[in-house]
Model the fold of this input.
Amino acid sequence: MRVKLSALLAIATTVGLSAPPAPAQQPVILKVAIVQQIDSMNPFLAVFQSSTEVGRLMYDYLTAYAAADQSVTEGLANRWEPSADKLTWTFTVPEGKKWSDGVPITARDVAYTYDLMMTDEVARTANGSFVANFAEVTAPDDRTVVIRTKAPQVTMTALDVPIVPRHVWEKVASLKDHTNEQMPVVGSGPFVLTEHVPGQFIKLRANKGYWRGAPKYDELHFVYFQNSDAAVQALAKGEVDLVNRMAPAQFDSLAGKEGVTRNKAQGRRFTELMINPGAQTRTSEPIGDGNPVLRDVRVRRAIARAIDLDALVQRVNLGYAEKGAGLVPPIFGKYHWAPSAAELRTFDPAAAGAALDAAGHPRGADGTRFGLRLIGRAGRAYDEQAAEYLKRSLGDIGIPLDVRLVSDNQLNESTTAATYDLAFSGWSTNIDPDFVLSLHTCAQRPGADGKGGTTDTYFCDETYDRLYAQQLSEFDEARRIEIVKQMQARFYDQVPAVVLAYDNALEGYRSDHFASFTTQPAQGGVIMAQNGMWGYYGAQPAEQAAAAPRGWGGLAAFGAATAGMVLAVVVYLRRRRATAGERE
Done:
């Protein structure tokens, strides 16, 4: 019996096609551990670093900071031009960029966002300082945004304000009550928020229509943990892929761990000890219940002098930090301020005690002068360890501390309402220092209802405010740097807070799951807590780094299903020909 090659190949193909289909491809998910709660998904209200981190993934800004060197680059606008007098800025929003629901992004969305902030006090809660100097914002057409300022404003290419879709937000009845959790949430960023269960997880999916191109994986999940110990253990087990803000001992414990790559970078964050200076509202009405002795700058200076910052960095940070001073971390070198020898507050408990005596607070019969309350965040190793250190240090000068560690939201409520004496806090600083400087202006204090402002320490000082206005309008870089440093020196002298340390960013990721992440800046930069979204956006799944491009899975499955049959056909034909006595 003769068997034709074509017939056998047809049989093989039919068998291959009738084989069970390959299983559906599972989504590639990046799982990120977080320990800080979310204060709000509403970009006009969100202040927590965790909230703004998610917000940067959902909404683009007018301009952005490049991953490589943090220089200003294209955001929603791709061109900008100031007038000769620097009072009018014209931005161009190009065609082709779309919201995640497919609606085109236009200049009218930008104008709407800024106008809302200018006219609604609630909308100014998180980022109001960026528009405080705006006189008018218009969109003469879909491509052009024109911003006119009251005075020249040097930060016009550093407006870190999430731009929202007008066609969605103009339907919001009450901004202060809007949670922004109508899923999926319409945005312009590389990811779309799809689900949020407070205290459990946040889920986002890749925005396939993102104007820079879709991310290389399908979903991004933020998973809550009660504390950083649990988060680091989950990383070690492969249950999550990325962790940051690790305690030094946790970071060290991952050295040599198979499948885990560590990243130590100079961070953009500082940790501070806030000292309630006598909190007041924007109209100078007292607010909160801070101990009145702290209104005296002599007392605040004495407290600062009783803290050995070098010892704190070594014992609590284990050397993974730099001693604190001004409001701008060393990573932003030109604006970073360090006290001169004449300005430096040296650690001197005896001098601190003498200053308290002179301020009218001698030790009593029990050896104490007055007590203070210290509040911090539960589950954060730094707060727990530093609180014990401060109890000893301040106890040595006659100030007993009542330490209370609470949840993120409780800490935020207490510091917002000024119901504290001392409190641990910290901020991540932007590339331009204006925002972190603005947190200490009189205008950032809340209104009469205790809301509407984003003050850090309730600091209000005429000298500081005058310098702030000067730096905002100073386009000569050298002169502006000088003013910014004068502001930090004034803050240091008046002590509404003690900047304890500039923390290193201690991060770890499962390199067996994700081969690489984009850091900012490229050399020695961070993965998380960037001035942008590049770390998440540029994540490269390990399988993709080593395998063929995605999308060929069906063909590969077909090949696997039919290869054995085709091989059998070829072998059979070779045998038939051999036994038939035909010459090969």
